[in-house]
Amino acid sequence: MSKRQIPDTLLLEERAGLALNAMKGMADEDYGGIPFFAANLMVEPAHLTHGDWDFGSSHGRMVDGMILARHMSGSTEGEDVERRYRENLLSFFKEDGLSYRQINPNYKWEPNANLIDQRAVILSLTTWFMATGDPKAKEAADRHVAALKRIAVKEREVWYYPASEYKEGGWPSANAVQLRLAPDPAAFCGRLIMPLLKYHEVTGNEDALELCRFFAALIVERSGVFNKDGSFNDALAYRSGHFHTRVGTLDALARFGVFTGDASLIAFVEKSYAWALTISTGFGWTPGDLKEQAYEHETCSLVDLISTGITLAKSGYTQYWGTVERFLRNHLAESQLLDLSWVKETDDRSRNVPGRITYTNVAERSRGAFAGYSAPNDFCCNVNHGRGHVNDLQLCCLGSGTRGLFMGWSNTVTESAGTVSVNLLLSRGSKWLDVDSYLPHEGKVTLHVHQDLKELQIRIPEWAGYTKVRFVREHEGERSEGGGMDPSRFVKGCFLLLGPARAGETITVTFPLSMRTTVETAVGQTFVTQWRGDDVVGISPEGENHPFYSGRKVYDKAPMREGDYRRPERELVW
C-alpha cells in the first residue's frame, strides 16, 4: 500500500484498529477467556468486573465487533482472543438451539436463555458467516433461528416472547420475576429483526424472514411501544422508554421497510426518529431512558441513532446524513477512550478474583473502548441525579461503538444505479475514489477518482449554503471550475452534482466553515456548545472526569501526515 500526504483528521478505520486493543484486553485469561463486562475507572486502582451479560451477549458483541474492526483496519491484533471468543460462543448453545448464560460461582443466577442475549448471538453469527463462509457459523445460526421461531408465542397476526428468559423446560423463568423484567416487545422482539433480516438476505433462511414479519407487526400494530406522535412509551412495562432498545427497534423496522418496499413503515420510523432527536443533543448524547436512567447515555443508543439515520437518509430523508456525521465526529469519537493518563492502574494481581474482578493493567487493557455511561461533557457520568455514578465502560458499548465506526465508514461512499455518492465528509478510501477531508480545519474535501464514473455527487453540509461552494477539477493537465450557483447543480436537497468523472481525476470542493454557538439541553441540563462546521470545539460547563471537547485543536490549515486508506477487495455490507 503506497503512502502519500493525507489530512491528519478523523479516520474511522484507525479508530477501529484501536478498538481491537480493548476487545482483546477485556478477555479474562483466568476465567476461560470470558470477557469482563464493566469497568470503574474513577476508583484507585481502576477495576474490571464480570456480570450476567458475559456470555451470549458479550461474546456476540465481541465476535461481531472484532470482525468488523479487522475488516476496516486490516489489523491482525487479537486473532487468538477472537478465536477463543468464537469457541466460547458456540459452547453456550444447548441442544434446543438457544444460547444460555452459564453458572458463575461468584453470582447466584440460574442458567437461562436471555432474550436480549439472543440478538447479539444471531448478529455475530451472521457477521461471522458473511466474513468467512464458515459452515460452523451457519449451522449454529440455522439452529438458532429455528429455535427462536419454535419458542415464539404465535397469534393470528403477531408473534412474541412472554418473558425475558427461557429455560430448557420452557416458559417462564424465575429470574423474570426476580429481576422485574417485563416481556418488553422492543427489547426482546423488535431489535431481533435487524440481524434476522440480514441473515435472511445472506442465506435465504425463510424462518428468519417470517420472524421479522410477525415481530414487525407486533411492534407497529399491537405493542404500544411507540405512541401515536412517535414518542416512546415511558411506562414501566416498556422499560421506562429505554432508549437503546427503542432506537434499535427503529433501526430494525427501517431496514425491514426498505427490504419489503413498505413506505408506510419507513414513515413510521422517521416520525419516531425525529422525536428522539428532540430529546437528544445535536452532537449525539441521548438519555438512557425517560425515567430512572435518563442521565445515563449509552454508546449503544448513539450507534442505533447512527444506523437508523443512515437507513432513513438512503431512503430519501437526506437531511439525516448531516445528523449522522455530527454524531460520528462528536459523541462517538469522544466516547472512545484514547487518553488514559487520568486512570490510576496497577500491575498487582493479588486482589484479583477469577470470574469476578481484576485490578491488573486496567488502563492498558481498556485503551480503545467506548464509554458505558457518559455525560454530555464528560466520559464519566457522576451526576447528582438518577443512579449517580455507574459503569464507566460496558462491553455492549464497546461492541456497539465499533459497529458505529463501521456503519459510518461503510456508508461514507456508496454506489447505486451507477451514481457514486460521497455521503459523509470523512476521509476514506474506496474502489471508486478516495476522500481527503480537511474538516474541521478547512472547508475543503478532495476526491481522487480511481475509475471512470457515470455520475458523481457529494453532500454539502446545510450550514455551508450554496452560493460560495466551489469546485476545481484537474485531469492530465486540464482544469475546470464551477460552483453551487451553477444551474441544476444541487439534487436531493444537499448533494452537489458533479456529473461524470474520469479515472485519475482530482476534484477539490471548498465551502465556507460555519462558526456558531448552540445551547443544547440534556434532561434539563443546558450546555453552551461551540461548533466549527460539524465539529464541537468547546462546551460549557466543562466536564470534571476526563472532559469531552476541551482538548480539540483546530488550525487554519489542516495538518498533514504520510499515510493511505484501507480498501478491502470485498466489503462487508451491513
UniProtKB/TrEMBL annotation:
One of its GO terms (biological process) is carbohydrate metabolic process. InterPro entries: 6-hairpin_glycosidase_sf. This is Uncharacterized protein. It comes from Cohnella zeiphila.
